[in-house]
Specification:
Distance between the termini: 24 Å
Largest sheet: 5 strands, antiparallel
Structural class: alpha+beta
Number of strands: 5
Order of helices and strands: EHHHHEEEEH
Number of helices: 5
Shape: elongated
Low-confidence stretches: none
Helix content: 25-40%
Strand order of the largest sheet: 1-3-4-5-2
Strand content: 25-35%
């Protein structure tokens, strides 16, 4: 694994800034190809030109959520001995994400809970912002982190 951080190494209030990513037409088209999410909001400039909220083609919300997922992996689970996603709570899409927007993320540990001898649960406050420092997505991201490398080896146990 990438590092040696275990559940007890994470502290409430610990905060990490994820490196930004600029959204491209290719990102949106590849997402659409993988999911068949062909709503006109995501593929039709003329449709969005007449839309009451959007100015142009927008990235699918779940694509933006996947950036939050990637930022949590970058800052929290990659440095962990073993870590994995457990869920997303209270996801809110606050502003549209357009081609050319650069999305960055702030990931803050807001709660820790020992689930069993093998896993602990981190609750992460995630705030994605665009290049204008406007929040585009917020969520509570849940991540399981191993209590130790030896606790995980040889078990398929996740949580009680």
């Amino acid at each position: 694994m990438a590092s040696e951080r275990v559940f007890d190494d994470y502290e409430i209030g610990e905060s990490h800034t994820a490196i930004g990513r600029t959204v491209t037409h290719s990102d949106i088209r590849m997402w659409i190809g993988a999911t068949d999410a062909t709503h006109p909001n995501h593929v039709n400039s003329e449709y969005t030109a007449d839309h009451p909220v959007f100015d142009d083609i927008v990235a699918p919300g779940v694509y933006t959520l996947s950036l939050a997922d990637a930022f949590c992996a970058e800052t929290i689970s990659r440095p962990a001995t073993y870590g994995m996603n457990y869920g997303h709570d209270d996801v809110r899409y606050l502003k549209p994400v357009y081609v050319g927007d650069t999305i960055s993320g702030e990931v803050t540990v807001t709660d820790t809970e020992q689930k069993n001898d093998t896993w602990g649960l981190l609750t992460l406050d995630v705030d994605l912002t665009n290049q204008d420092d406007e929040s585009v997505l917020v969520e509570d991201h849940l991540m399981l982190i191993a209590t130790s490398a030896s606790a995980v080896e040889g078990t398929d146990e996740t949580t009680d």
